[in-house]
Amino acid sequence: MTASVDLADFLPAYLAEVEELLDSAHRHLMAVEASARRGAAHPKSVRELFRALHTIKGLSAMVDVEPIVSISHWMETSLRQADQAGGRLPESSVEPLMEGLRAVEQRMRQLASGKDASPVPSGLLERLEALGVSTSVVTGTARPVAVTLDEGLALASRLTPVEREQLTTGAGHRRPVRVDFIPGAERAARGITINSVRERLAALGDLVKVVPLAGPAPGGGSLTFVLLLSTEASDSVLMEAAGGEPAQVRALSSPPVSPAVDGTPAPEREPELELEEPEEARRSTGTLRVEVSRLDEALERLASLVVNRSRLQRAVTDLTAAGAPTRELRAILQENGRQLRDMRAAILRLRMVRVGDVLDRLPLLVRGLRRTTGKAVRLELDVGDAELDKAVADRMLPALVHLVRNAVDHALESPEERRAAGKPLEGTVRLGCHANASGWVDLTITDDGRGVDAEAVARRARAPVPRGSDDLLELLCRPGFSTREEVTSTSGRGMGMDIVRRIVVDQLGGELRLETRLGVGTTFHLRVPLTITLLDAIIFECAGLRYAVAVGSVEELIEVEATRVVRPAGANGVALVERRGQAVSLVSLARLLGSTQAVDATPARGLVVRQRGDLVAFGVDRLLGQQEIVLRPLEDPLVRVPGVAGATDLGDGQPTLVLDLNALGAARRPGAGGREERAT
Amino acid sequence: MSVLHVVFKVDGAEYVLPASDVLQMESFTGATPVPGAASHVEGLVQVRGRVIPVVDARRRFGLPALERSLDTRVVVGQLGTRTVGLLVDSAREVLKLDPSKFQPPPPLVVEGSKGFVKAVAQVGPRLVMLIDFPRVIGEETPDGDGKR
């Protein structure tokens, strides 16, 4: 069925959106919990939580993920009642709700990895349902209005009991409606797609389900989306939202609901009306979600502009040398260079994310640790408005999670120990962050725990007692080092500090320091670059050394057959190979790199690069593969040479050069010993 | 007022650098050559996550190459914002030296050392030479020496 293809297209967007909503839900649930513990109400967070779940439910119904629909529905129900009780949620309700969020999250992950969402865990729905009942007793909520569904029109077989209930129990003036939308090229051109229609209808009522139907549709289409919703909007309003003909709007209930069945007073519904409005406000907050790959693409396009500019510059230099009046041209060129730099900075800024947003999950982590370790912990985040490149942030997060987990699990003492030591019973883990001017971000993770016992560490590592904190850190970062005998569920066996160092120091080129005082606490100082450059690179071997080049700079990889290489006399080492009926110069890269090894043997592989419009093949010995690398620019003047874009760590702790073949070929052309002389 | 100095050996002679200019000393396991860099640049090494250039002191001083051994060290020096390593035969000592004891190098030393030696000091029977680090690593002139 063609429709399933359409749904698969929705899935990535669905997952991204639900993930964001889950983050928000977690955050607000924790805020609610904090208030509940003080016996206070937190109407704003209850409402936000409700809104997040409401949207999750709607989205999940669209892509037909029944378990998530059910879970979010019952969570929503209990929250609706908490909202009507003025934002008061009993503390005992937090855990089942937390459990619900976890269950939703788990199913999200299953979907993301291409699996089906597993059914709702046994007992969860009952526990969530029970919450609704217990709070509803307090409030006396709007009574559901029973409506009979027109089963045929409602595609009854496709509806779950929950959805059926949602459709039929719309309070007050709501009635169940079926809107048929037929997508088409002409409608798409006017911006009317299933997504826009879904959004508009969702704003008009409670969108319960979207069912795609394949088959001939009015107006010549072959696909119909059936949208089932509970709304109080009139048919004409719905028709307009669906983009007019050939869409159809049909009522699903035979008898229209009378306004005041059982004397349900209209004001009861007001909180819900309010809930729907900010939803619209949320959509118009000028932020945009963009795939990182698109930003990278923009950066790549910019790179080609920069290359083009240097060609232009060379041409102008030649003109100038020939005595042409180029003053104005050079001024423009200079301005152009500045603009390109600004452009690059602007694109890099797009990739920045707030550190605070990245650390969203840490409070949740600490909350979990509080439960598993039985320790009282307070997490203080002091991250301000600092920003980090998304690529750095993504790599940093596991290291931070590790350090926070270590702090709670290993560093903080049990409440009894803390009492005995005269410390506050509640331990503190503090995460601070600020950007400094020179392109680095400093992060600190401080605990007020027992501190690192250098002697104990030395005993365990079977090493002499470290003298300074650098040496101590060195010991802690030994692969597989652990201060614990037993495996704990939270940190496993190892401290895993080697992983932290691997990320911070080796991968990101940052710094890691330790400061610790026995009985007082420990601080880890991390310094990471604000931004890193990621490259998809081809790794190859040449004259016994490994090198990397950007995939984008290589047009083609060819196999070089020794028997088919032509060596024109006097070409000084440049040979010719045939590629699709065309002669391409073949330059030995080893020779170009000035290798002292014998380089007369014909290289086995060629990396074909376009140079000033012509193709040149650089001969190498062996291709080792393709991988994403972190490019470290070489800043020292001693090693800033044309043709070398930077270095990277392929995991062996040795720098591997990242070559810019284009620049390398050009730099070594004239005046460099005439290594390359091309016959044109 | 004495100041800590790191002592290292190149071709039997002893040189010193103020310890405050030295970040650390590392054993040497090979450097990644950088094609096109000055001849005295041995290559790149990764020291605690940083990728830094290493200058071969022997080649810089115009001395014959020596087989690397377990004693071979990279003295990692800090020069403003730059971090550069100096490859030496060995480095295992730290000395307290009084800066006022340093004398201008004798003419013969000046001539032989191409200006790399800033001052000399007598420590008991030993003569140690204070090197001009910026000059040794060859500041902004990647092709400054041109000879080996």
Features of the shown structure:
heterodimer; A: 680 residues; Four Helix Bundle (Hemerythrin (Met), subunit A); Alpha-Beta Plaits; five-stranded mixed sheet; 21 helices; globular; B: 148 residues; mainly beta; OB fold (Dihydrolipoamide Acetyltransferase, E2P); 3 helices; 10 strands; 10% helix
Counting DSSP E segments of at least 2 residues, the number of strands of chain B comes to 10
CATH architecture of chain B: Beta Barrel
Strand residue content of chain A:
15-25%
Major sheet details of chain B: 5 strands, mixed
Structural class of chain B: mainly beta
Widest sheet of chain B: strand order? Answer: 8-1-2-10-9
CATH class of chain B: Mainly Beta
Residue runs with pLDDT of under 50 for 5 or more positions of chain A: 1-5, 135-146, 256-284, 485-494, 670-680
Question: In a nutshell, what does this entry contain?
Answer:
The complex is a heterodimer of chains A (680) and B (148). Chain A is of the alpha+beta class and 680 residues long. In chain A, a hairpin with a 3-residue loop joins strand 8 (427-436) and strand 9.
Detailed description of the structure:
The complex is a heterodimer of chains A (680) and B (148). By secondary structure, chain A is of the alpha+beta class. Chain A contains 21 helices and 21 strands. Chain A folds into 5 domains: 1-141, Four Helix Bundle (Hemerythrin (Met), subunit A) (Up-down Bundle); 143-257 and 266-271, 2-Layer Sandwich (Alpha-Beta Plaits); 292-350; 355-529, 2-Layer Sandwich (Heat Shock Protein 90); 533-667, SH3 Domains (SH3 type barrels, Roll), CATH 2.30.30.40. In chain A, α3 (66-84) packs parallel to α5 (124-139) and α15 (390-411) packs antiparallel against α19. With 148 residues, chain B is mostly beta strands. Chain B has one domain: OB fold (Dihydrolipoamide Acetyltransferase, E2P). Chain B has helices at residues 57-60, 107-112, 133-137, and strands at residues 3-10, 13-18, 22-27, 41-47, 50-56, 73-79, 82-88, 90-97, 117-123, 126-131. Helix content of chain B is 10%, strand content 47%. Classes of the chains: A alpha+beta (680), B mainly beta (148).
